[in-house]
Design brief:
The protein is an alpha+beta fold and about 300 residues long. The chain is about 50% helix and about 20% strand. Helix 1 crosses helix 2, helix 1 packs across helix 3 and helix 10 crosses helix 11. The two termini are about 30 Å apart.
């Protein structure tokens, strides 16, 4: 039976997950060097050594079952790997696991059991070895709803964008779907004006004020003009204030109330766009090929 000291040593040597190290040590009868060879043969060390690679490709997934829904982003190094069936199976399995676990953060999620005692962390490491690229679960969010609420789940461009919407005051799933589809296309930055930070609001006002003064607008008129400018700003960046894509004569908020009833409203939304915020490195293809040949 593998002991903690040997498991720790093997992890430091290989970068492999805890369960992979334990299983390799059990197979090698606690011989650390032999266990390292076992991990190498399984491709697990190859995956661990890619830890410094930038994983900016991949897929976003959104899924709901019953009163729970999840949206997540799983990354790979290349678009080629992301289109691999093994990668798609991995992404779906992670979505199903997160739906059951209801974890609140990545640290918790990594410890959740996928199956047969294997954690999410070790499962990702194992699949990284099989695919031959660094795979990461970058982010996720889980929502729960009541009977009087509705989920809208929408995925665009084969998982390049995924949106999860929660409506309250209505159980109309098709209405929630329409709002999710709108959010995918319109790319709102926040739900409503309450979510715009004071810093961002003051920055926008200052920009508009400088522009108005340059245009020669009188000081005593600027405050009223600023109110109109900020209203336009909210209509561009806040989901409930945006013009609804199916009926641009109405805001999203107005449309939801018209179709879902006076108490219907958008409670929450999450929009994941693949690779958003990840700084992609320059790819040295010759170095990549040399690395592969030397493995």
């Amino acid at each position: 039976m593998a002991n903690l000291q040997d498991i720790t040593k093997l992890r430091e040597m290989t970068g492999a997950g805890m369960m992979d190290c334990k299983n390799a040590l059990d197979e090698a009868e606690n011989n650390v060097e032999k266990a390292s060879e076992i991990l190498r043969k399984k491709g697990i060390i190859k995956a661990a050594k890619r830890a410094d690679k930038i994983a900016a490709e991949g897929i976003t997934v959104v899924k709901s079952t019953g009163d729970t829904a999840v949206v997540l982003e799983v990354n790979s190094e290349t678009d080629f790997a992301a289109k691999n069936d093994t990668f798609k199976v991995l992404s779906e399995k992670l979505a199903d696991t997160l739906l059951k676990s209801k974890s609140s953060n990545l640290e918790e999620a990594m410890k959740v059991e996928v199956e047969n005692g294997q954690s999410v962390e070790d499962y990702i490491t194992e699949m990284s070895g099989k695919i031959g690229e660094k795979i990461t679960l970058r982010r996720f969010e889980i929502m729960t709803k009541e009977d009087s609420q509705a989920f809208g789940v929408y995925s665009h461009m084969q998982g390049k964008i995924s949106v999860l919407v929660l409506l309250s005051g209505t159980g109309d799933d098709s209405l929630a779907y329409d709002v999710a589809m709108h959010a995918a296309a319109a790319n709102p930055k926040c739900l409503n004006s309450d979510e715009v930070s004071v810093e961002d609001m003051e920055k926008e006002k200052e920009i508009y004020k400088v522009q108005l003064l340059k245009e020669g607008k009188p000081e005593n008129m600027i405050e009223n003009i600023l109110q109109g400018k900020m209203k336009k700003y909210y209509s561009e960046y806040c989901l409930v204030n945006q013009h609804f894509i199916k009926d641009e004569s109405k805001s999203v908020e107005q449309y939801v109330k018209e179709k879902g009833g006076e108490n219907a409203k958008v409670e929450k939304f999450v929009r994941y766009e693949l690779g958003a915020g990840i700084e992609k490195g320059e790819c040295d293809y010759l170095a990549e090929v040399a690395e592969q040949l030397n493995k």
